[in-house]
Write a structure and sequence with these properties.
Blueprint (H helix, E strand, L loop, with lengths): L3 E2 L6 E2 L28 H4 L3 H16 L6 H4 L16
Antiparallel strand pairs: 1-2
């Protein structure tokens, strides 16, 4: 369970967050082939040491706020096709 501030009054909610996508790196998109989970794209779909370190830091942050993050039930590494904020157009 991760307590988080209610947007209106700053109180803490006891709702359970089931999934969170926590982006830790950007890879330039070249084709749909990158989104296929296979040996060729292994580096996109599996965590590296930096990814793991960033996740550990996020867990420490959640715990510092009084939350609990059960990585065994919620953590999964993968990739997502999206737009990097630096390249998004308003």
């Amino acid at each position: 369970m991760i307590p988080f501030p209610d947007r209106d009054d700053g109180t803490i909610s006891e709702e359970v967050i089931e999934k969170v996508f926590f982006p830790v790196r950007f890879v330039r998109y070249t084709s749909e082939e990158q989104l296929v989970r296979n040996e060729e794209n292994k580096l996109l779909w599996e965590p590296n040491e930096t990814d793991k370190a960033m996740l550990d830091e996020f867990v420490r942050f959640v715990e510092s706020k009084g939350g609990k993050l059960d990585l065994m039930s919620v953590a999964e590494f993968g990739c997502w096709k999206g737009i990097h904020p630096d390249y998004a157009r308003s």
